[in-house]
Amino acid sequence: MASVAGAFLKVLLLLPAQTWSPVVAGNPRDCDAPLVFALPQSSFSSSSELSSSHGPGFARLNRRDGAGGWTPFVSNKYQWLQIDLGERMEVTAVATQGGYGSSDWVTSYLLMFSDSGRNWKQYRQEESIWGFPGNTNADSVVHYRLQPPFEARFLRFLPLAWNPKGRIGMRIEVYGCAYRSEVAYFDGQSALLYRFDKKSIKPIRDVISLKFKAMQSSGILLHREGQHGTHITLELIKGKLVFFLNSGNANLAPTNAHVNLTLGSLLDDQHWHSVLIQRLDAEASFTVDKHTHHFHTKGGSSYLDLNFEISFGGIPTPGRSRKSFHGCLENLYYNGVDIIELAKTHKPQIRIMGNVSFSCSQPQTVPVTFLSSSSFLALTSNSGDDKMFVTFQFRTWNRAGRLLSGELRRGAESFVLFLQDGKLKLSLFQLGQSSRNVTAGAGLNDGQWHSVSLSAKWGHMSVAVDDDTAIQPLMAALIDSGDTYYFGGCPDNSSGSGCKGPLQGFQGCLRLISIGDTAVDPISVQQGALGRFSDLQIDSCGITDRCLPSYCEHGGECSQSWDTFSCDCLGTGYTGETCHSSLYEQSCEAYKHKGNPSGLYYIDADGSGPLGPFLVYCNMTADAAWTVVRHSGPDAVTVRGAASFVYAAGAGQLRAAVGPAERCEQRLALRCGTARLPDARDGTPLSWWVGRTNETHTYWGGSLPDAQKCTCGLEGNCIDSQYYCNCDAGRNEWTSDTIVLSQKEHLPVTQVVMTDTGRPHSEAAYSLGPLLCQGDKSFWNSASFNTETSYLHFPTFHGELTADVSFFFKTTVSSGVFMENLGITDFIRIELRAPTDVTFSFDVGNGPCEVTVQSPTPFNDNRWHHLRAERNIKGASLQVDQLPQKIQPAPVNGHVRLQLNSQLFIGGTATRQRGFLGCIRSLRLNGMAVDLEERATMTPGVEPGCAGHCSSYGHLCRNGGRCREKRRGMACDCAFSAYDGPFCSDEISAYFETGSSVTYNFQEHHILSENSSALASSLHRDVTLTREMITLSFRTTRTPSLLLYVSSFYEEYLSIILANNGSFQIRYKLDRHQDPDAFNFDFKNMADGHLHQVKISREEAVVMVEVNQSAKKQVILSSGTEFNAVKSLILGKFLEPPGADPDTRRAAARGFTGCLSAVRFGRAAPLKAALRPGGPARVTVRGHVVAASRCAAGAGSGSPARELAPRLAGGAGRSGPTDEGEPLRNADRRDSAVIGGVIAVVIFILLCITAIAIRIYQQRKLRKENESKISKTEEC
């Protein structure tokens, strides 16, 4: 019936110190009257006084009576000044002074309040500040307005720090007004039943307000039932308030409630807590103290279907097992009706069930707070007893800590009772023996009160926690209990067994301590009449739920100890102290420029914002990064009526992803078959689609919104001119519309509707493609700051509890401020402080804090650097590029709110000094992109955009690719690389079947004679090489093999071959009049079916060879240093290379069978030219050369790689070989030449037979020749 729409926390805080006038600052109720100045002397009390003239009665503000203020006998942290206001009052402000004309004043203090003078509660600022800043001299007055105010009769001021050259000295005033209240006490077995007028049972607005003080941790506060099991219930469960709203289910179990909201924690602290429940039609809110849940009740009418009565304090129906409330309710109102007043005056609408009284009894329990791990309470026992019995209750968040220790037999046997992993553990120690342990309970660090009893008698010792008991036998039957029991830690001079080891003392609260049959009075301890203690807060339980509100964002799980909290971010997609920072990039564009290839990625379009990450496919192309968002429906669906499409991302996520895109589109292929309609001939469309915002659109691809026409309607070529879409024509035949929708504000498509498909024999087939979005404008949004006094200004940056800033910057200057935002005293600033130092500084009221990242290399290198700064209540962090992140923890119990009020300055400061010179790009504040370019267009000294991206991203272009600047970003030009893809990293591979080849011609052929050397030199001087770089990768099992051959018009050549034994060999002939230089590299047998990578570089006569990126060898040429008139490069088989040595001829005749990839000779990439569309006409392919995805992932060696790849443009991927070599660019690959293909196959077979015969003849002839410079043993 309802779903929770969201939760909004309204945290109220204490205003900073200021000079304040009660009259001027009065609230509308004028609740700011001074409450102390007219009180009698008896209303003042204190822990001690230095003399009768320094007593608490002299502590009135601005009075000079006595010694001029209160001063205790000893100045330490256990002193206090107490005020009794006579009755509960509303307190709105406090003010303090030091002792008149003295050096005695308090610099910080705690403020406690209570209804009864017992069980004090601390007033906290900002949920974490422990102390109020006090005075800096004896006479000035420091006022604080309390937001929110509180109600109390008793107040205590506890000095924390004072003038080190004086003593504690205080004069005080309290401001407020009278507080009216009606109170009812419920004893756990009583209730009030309110019956109201039937005429008013269905109000449009319902409001229930009350305050409660609980004596027990669980109980029903209110309950109202309706028909068919409908009910609303407000119940206290283990100190938390739970609101149940159930529709149509009589079972009151929480798991069956349709709305189940939990607010508050530790509400069983015997202090007042406020509740407000409001409903306006179907909108409702639930508030406990300062924390609010808003929710929507979808079934509003069911909510109103309730009975005519509502009960408070319990459920009056007999047989109900739910526990009734034990405690007090105050100012209980239902729709403006004072329920308690009706009950006190015994009005007929109210029925009192059980014992309900109209005054609130005050608790007599005195809790004790152990503030630190060194806190202890030492209590004496009846020494010499033959038994031991100790009981107490405790509550804590800590998983570990020593609770109690003592002796069983003097110096011989001792015990320690402690928490470990949330369990209660008892360890017994005896001299010369190992410890013995028993464990009881689990999960005891849940903040709830737990009862413990420890007893020893008749040879055994037992420990019980709640309902769990464990027993441990003692070594000796006789017990002689020691003199002292230590609760918590141990004194510094203690040497007992329980005080040894790393175990820390207990932090938390204890109460109801009993030793033997005697209850311990903590007030006597406080007054020094009983025991000893250190670092305790007596008569107060100072436990705080640091997970309420939870500062863990994005679903992070909060856990806490006494001092702090932590967030478990596992599975959230976020990281950091508060799960604030996203693990993922904002877009595919960002992933691309980190060098990531195409693939599935999570993107987080709003970064640290509320929208979560979602999965997309990033298609990285040479010019752009495309974001592909698929829908969950099938690619094609036949429907009658409407087809809906659901995406993995929500509407907010899609909006955040589509907004910054350069452009978006979505293709819709629509085929429809329907009968002609006699009506709707006015051109009204019979089909439409619904976009992201649930708006209906009648326009189709290529048309403008609201045109109500398909593309054929705009072009005037629809199959029926009366209609504007083919599918609206109503033909008795299948028609189609292919649509490209590109109005990104409306995308993606969520529904397609065909209103006519309800007719018999009418149907439609939809094929909706994914949402495609190109680029990310925010990633390249930038501004150039040209003067030190220029800046961009934006509205105030709001990051009270959590703030993060990220951007790219580049500069050539040594310093400058990137960003600044100021408050009255708070500020935030990020700056380049020195060429190697970036500093993030801020102040939230605890004094300036700085975090600095230092780099081993300067930041002012005119390259882009990425900066991310974050500040939250746990601390601050700063990271630049991939340098180690620097973290600065926040001070314990310090101020946490960043309060700014000036404009946000980017690239400069409010003083126009230390401005930044350079570029800032992709600025994001709390995950939201800031449009720098728009503001820069109207700001002098600042220009939109920033050129020069290749200096930073050029390294992404690999394998010889060149970085090319774009207006928004850069692109890799792979024209002179043997690789392809967005970063020139996609391997271009091909499988060569036996007899196939690729020839790359460097220049056109010219017939040369022996006497035309001058002409040849003139024609080919541009391709004379003194150096070259060669790379290739291969995989084969065939030998001998020709890997690469480069020829010259002068019969010079280079050949790279595998010999018969698989050894790698190189031949260089750089002078046709000399024999070639032949080099054999004994790396290993490289015809082993594995992929091998070869890199050869020549610098004149020096040749460096590297194999598989590890084995290297250098050789020196003797045949020359210039490679003249380079003609062509050949991969695979060719016959009779002119002037070649016998081994090269044998390898050339055999060719190459296997996989070749990444072939490059200088700037020539022959495989790429052959296999990529639009390759140069100088490439010729003979035989069967098949494109492969990559050699390392191909088929097994020696067999063709059968990768499924798209056919190349122009037919480069055809399956049949050709007889005559011709450039692929000019080849005719059409399938219509069937007969020609058959003839070609026959000719190919005949040529193969002829080639085999020639090959046999050549091999016999070559065996007789002995011209090779390599021994025959190397060929075996």
From TrEMBL:
Annotated ranges, domain F5/8 type C: 31-177
Region (Disordered): 1193-1225
The EGF-like domain, residue ranges: 543-580, 947-985
Occurrences of domain Fibrinogen C-terminal (ranges): 579-631
Disulfide partners: C919-C946
InterPro entries: ConA-like_dom_sf (IPR013320), EGF (IPR000742), FA58C (IPR000421), Fibrinogen-like_C (IPR036056), Fibrinogen_a/b/g_C_dom (IPR002181), Galactose-bd-like_sf (IPR008979), Laminin_G (IPR001791), Neurexin-related_CASP (IPR050372)
Membrane-topology annotation of the record: Single-pass type I membrane protein
Sequence intervals crossing the membrane: 1233-1254
Gene3D superfamilies xrefs: 2.60.120.1000, 2.60.120.200, Galactose-binding domain-like, Laminin
Origin: domain of life: Eukaryota
SUPFAM superfamilies on file: Concanavalin A-like lectins/glucanases, EGF/Laminin, Fibrinogen C-terminal domain-like, Galactose-binding domain-like
Leader sequence segment: 1-25
GO cellular component: membrane
Localization (cell): Membrane
Stated name of the protein: Contactin-associated protein-like 3
Family, similarity comment: Belongs to the neurexin family.
GO biological process: cell adhesion
Record key words, sorted: Cell adhesion, Disulfide bond, EGF-like domain, Glycoprotein, Membrane, Repeat, Signal, Transmembrane, Transmembrane helix
The Laminin G domain, residue ranges: 183-360, 366-541, 781-946, 1004-1191
